Amino acid sequence: MKTKYIPKVSVVVPIYNVEKYLRQCLDSIVGQTLHDIEIILVNDGSTDSSPEIIQEYAEKDKRIIVVNQENGGLGKAYNVGIDAATSEYIGFVESDDFIEPDMYETLWQIAKTHNVDVAKSLFWIYNAETLQDDEIISGYNEPDMEQVINPRKCPQIFSFGASVWSAIYKRNFLNNKKIRFLESPGASYQDTSFAFKIWSMADSVYFTKKPLLHYRSGHETQSTKSKEKVFAVCDELREIERFMADYPELFTRLTRIYNYMKWNTFYYNLKRLEGKNHEIFSKTLANEFTADFFKNKQFESCNYSWRQIAKKQKFLNPNSVWFKLKYRLLVIASCFIKVKIKNGIKKWVILGYFPVWKNKVIWKSVE
């Protein structure tokens, strides 16, 4: 009996009106040094020339599987790709990004060598205007790199950006834990809940220091550039809560971590808004947190300075004279003593030059 062919990695590419960048993306995938892959192109109802480009590549490369659907949004396109995948591992590439020639060979070798649920790399921010890589994005502490870790034992991982496309995931892990993207047509930030599900459920993850993906930033089609879409993060947070309802004991242990991520998500997006949207979203943020939120240990605060925490307390207590005064005093103090955090070390520095104290940033294990 002939053994069924199973490729090593399934690469899912959601595509919607990206004719300007699609060829560069597909060239980087079909040219992978790991030839034994299947490439699942999900055309999410494109109205430009993307379908013709997809067909052109599919006719030249038998590894390409084309799925056409009505526009259902990024989350649905991802999920359709996951369901169509047959490989042991699944990776994602957004169709306006591109990857290094050895990305999937590197990640697959790591995944097989260490038998991990997730193998993840760093990535470059690629400037859409200058057409150059601006910086390598890490966020991970050096001690956590190049080794197998359990995210629940190293929960600082939850605080990093989602970047779900710079990794491969064991397909059985995704299916067994019922991990999928939230399907919300026209929305953005669909990787927020997906990443939290991954870190809360995975037992083994390997981070490599090597950057393998070029994340295109600053172009006109980027979904996160739409300020109206920031309200979609509320749906992503509700999705996390829905998913974790099946794991109440674990979610209780993850409460401080979740609230840390929740606050950062809200506050980051609040800073991007102006006018009426800023006012509405500000009220949404305030409604999500109690006035004494930062006092009763509901929040993982080790990544923050006293000044940063005081600023958050002032925001949640806008009529409090005490919190306004506390914040102003700490602003003055920070002119003389600054707190710097790098590679998991928090340092107190006088006048920017003289270190007076340092200690390790410790995120308590929730395992």
How big a fraction of the residues is strand?
Answer: 15-25%
Q: Major beta sheet, specifics?
A: 10 strands, mixed
* End-to-end separation: 45 Å
CA radius of gyration: 22 Å
Estimate the global geometry from the Cα principal axes: globular
Indicate the percent of residues in helices: 25-40%
The total beta strand count reads: 13
Sequence-ordered SSE layout with sheet pairings:
Layout: E1 9-15, H1 22-30, E2 37-44, H2 50-60, E3 64-69, H3 74-84, E4 89-92, E5 98-99, H4 103-114, E6 118-127, E7 132-137, E8 148-149, E9 167-170, H5 171-176, H6 191-201, E10 205-217, H7 232-244, H8 248-253, H9 255-270, H10 275-288, H11 306-316, H12 321-334, E11 337-342, E12 345-350, E13 354-360
Parallel strand pairs: 1-2, 1-4, 2-3, 6-10
Antiparallel strand pairs: 4-9, 5-10, 6-7, 6-9, 8-10, 11-12, 12-13
Helix pairs in contact: 6-7, 9-10, 11-12
Describe the structure.
- With 367 residues, the chain is α/β, with parallel strands linked by helices.
- It has two domains: 9-221, Spore Coat Polysaccharide Biosynthesis Protein SpsA, Chain A; 291-367, no CATH class.
- It is 37% helix and 22% strand.
- It is built from twelve helices and 13 strands.
- The protein has helices spanning 22-30, 50-60, 74-84, 103-114, 171-176, 191-201, 232-244, 248-253, 255-270, 275-288, 306-316, 321-334, and strands at 9-15, 37-44, 64-69, 89-92, 98-99, 118-127, 132-137, 148-149, 167-170, 205-217, 337-342, 345-350, 354-360.
- The strands form two sheets. Strands 1, 2, 3, 4, 5, 6, 7, 8, 9 and 10 form a ten-stranded mixed sheet that branches. Strands 11-12-13 form a three-stranded antiparallel sheet, with no helix packed on it.
- α6 (191-201) runs parallel beside α7 (232-244) and α9 runs antiparallel to α10 (275-288).
- The radius of gyration is 22 Å and the shape is globular.
- It starts with 8 loop residues before the first strand and ends in a 7-residue tail after the last strand.
- The mean pLDDT is 84.
